[in-house]
Design a protein that fits this description.
Elements lengths: L2 H9 L19 H6 L5 H10 L2 E6 L12 E8 L3 E10 L2 E10 L6 E4 L5 H8 L11 H10 L3 E6 L3 H9 L1 H10 L1 H24 L5 E4 L12 H21 L3 E6 L9 H4 L4 E4 L10 H8 L4 E6 L1 H6 L2 H15 L5 E5 L10 H16 L2
Parallel strand pairs: 1-6, 6-7, 7-8, 8-9, 9-10, 10-11
Antiparallel strand pairs: 2-3, 3-4, 4-5
C-alpha cells in the first residue's frame, strides 16, 4: 500500500499492510521548514523521511470572526528581552477591541496575554462587524495534494464554533461564562456554526477532501468544563458539522488533549473517524487500552506517545512504551502511531534525538 492508501484505510478501520506512523510536527515534506531547523533535527528528519506517513494541513482561513468583511486593525511591538509583546487593536463599528501576544525571541512557543473579548459588551462589538461569507482560494489545497502524492494525506482544517469563540475570549473567561452566561455562549456558538458550515460547503463544492480536521474541542473538556457543557456547546452543534461531512462522503479527524474519560464516547457522536492523541495518566485519564476497548471499533486511534517522554525518558523506557502502544493499537485495525504533540524547542538534546529515532525504528521493526 502507499502511505496515502494506508492512512485512509486506518481512518476507515480497514485492513492495512502495516500500521501507519505519523510523527507530528516533523514536516519533512516542507523543504523550507527542514532547512530552518537546528542541525540537531537532522537525524529525526531523516528517520521520518525514510519510514513516516504524512498528515498535512490546509486551513480555510477566515480571520478571528470568520467573515470576509475587511476589519481595520493596527499593531505595535515592544521588545522586552526574551519576548516581543505585540499589541493589536481591532476597530469595529461599535468600538475598539484590544489583544496582546508575547512572541519568544528564543524559539519558544508564543503566549497570548490579552484577548479581544473581556466583557459581554465586547461580544456586541464583535457582532457589529458585518458578515460576508468567506471564500478562500482553494488552489493551495490541490497544490499540496499533488506535492504530497502517495506519501500521505492532506487534511482541510475547519474551525469549530467553540474554538472560534475561545480564541477571542481565552479559556478562563470561556469557562466562567459556560457557568454564568450560557445563553450568550450558545448565541455565539450558533453564529460561528453558521459561518463554519458555509465554509465547509464552499470547500466541499470546490473539490476539497476527503478529510476535514479540527482541534478546538479541547476548550470545552474537563477540567475547564464538564460533560454537560461538552454536549451542549460542542456535540450539539457538532452534529450538524458531522452530518454535513457525512452527506458528502468526507472523513473527520479530531485533535483533543486532556482527560477525556467522561466524554470519550461523545467523539463517536461527533462523527470522528480519527481521534488524537488519547492521553493516559497523568496528563490524561484514558489508558490506551481502555480507549481501544471502548471506541476502537468505531474510531481510529492516533497516539499516544507523550511528547514529554520523547524529550526526557531513558531510551529503553521509551521503546517499551512504544511497543506497548503498538501491541494495544494494532489488533482490529484503526491505529496510527503518533506523538501527542510536536517537538517544541529550537534545538533537540541528544537524548530527545535518540528517543525520536528509536520510536521510528521500533515501529519499522514491528511492521
Amino acid at each position: 500500500m502507499t502511505s496515502r492508501e494506508r492512512m485512509l484505510a486506518a481512518f476507515r478501520i480497514e485492513e492495512t499492510d502495516h500500521f501507519p506512523m505519523y510523527v507530528r510536527g516533523v514536516r519533512v515534506w516542507d523543504q523550507q521548514w527542514c532547512e530552518s531547523r537546528h542541525e540537531s533535527y537532522r537525524p529525526v528528519i531523516e528517520a521520518v523521511r525514510e519510514h513516516g506517513d504524512y498528515e498535512v494541513g490546509f486551513g480555510l482561513g477566515g480571520g478571528p470572526l470568520l467573515t470576509a468583511h475587511p476589519i481595520e486593525s493596527e499593531s505595535t511591538s515592544e521588545d522586552v528581552g526574551d519576548w516581543i509583546i505585540q499589541r493589536t487593536t481591532m476597530h469595529t463599528p461599535a468600538g475598539d477591541l484590544h489583544a496582546a501576544r508575547k512572541i519568544s525571541t528564543r524559539g519558544l512557543p508564543g503566549l497570548q496575554v490579552e484577548y479581544f473579548v473581556k466583557t459581554l459588551e465586547d461580544l456586541d462589538r464583535l457582532l457589529s462587524v458585518p458578515y460576508e461569507p468567506v471564500r478562500p482560494d482553494l488552489s493551495r489545497f490541490f497544490e499540496l495534494d499533488e506535492e504530497i502524492g502517495d506519501d500521505g494525506i492532506v487534511m482541510c482544517a475547519m474551525p469549530v464554533p467553540i474554538y472560534s469563540l475561545a480564541l477571542l475570549t481565552g479559556s478562563d473567561l470561556l469557562a466562567v461564562w459556560s457557568l454564568t452566561e450560557r445563553q450568550r455562549v450558545n448565541e455565539m456558538v450558533e453564529v460561528f456554526l453558521e459561518r463554519t458550515l458555509d465554509m465547509i460547503d464552499h470547500a466541499i463544492a470546490g473539490g476539497v477532501g476527503p478529510i476535514f480536521c479540527s482541534l478546538g474541542e479541547e476548550f470545552m473538556t474537563p477540567p475547564l468544563a464538564g460533560p454537560r457543557d461538552f454536549r451542549e456547546f460542542v456535540v450539539e452543534p457538532g452534529r450538524q458539522i458531522r452530518d454535513r461531512l457525512r452527506q458528502a462522503g468526507m472523513l473527520r479527524h479530531i485533535h483533543c488533549h486532556g482527560p477525556l474519560n467522561d466524554i470519550l464516547e461523545e467523539f463517536v457522536e461527533l462523527g470522528a473517524n480519527c481521534l488524537h492523541p488519547i492521553e493516559g495518566p497523568p496528563l490524561g485519564d484514558v489508558p490506551f487500552e481502555d480507549a481501544k476497548r471502548r471506541i476502537g471499533d468505531r474510531v481510529c486511534l492516533e497516539g499516544n506517545i507523550q511528547i514529554g517522554d520523547l524529550y526526557h525518558d531513558p531510551t529503553d523506557v521509551l521503546v517499551e512504551k512504544v511497543k506497548r502502544t503498538i501491541d494495544v493499537g494494532v489488533p482490529g485495525g484503526g491505529f496510527i502511531l503518533c506523538p501527542t504533540a510536536s517537538p517544541h524547542t529550537a534545538e533537540l538534546t541528544p537524548q530527545t534525538v535518540k528517543n525520536y529515532v528509536a520510536m521510528v525504528q521500533t515501529a519499522a521493526e514491528m511492521w
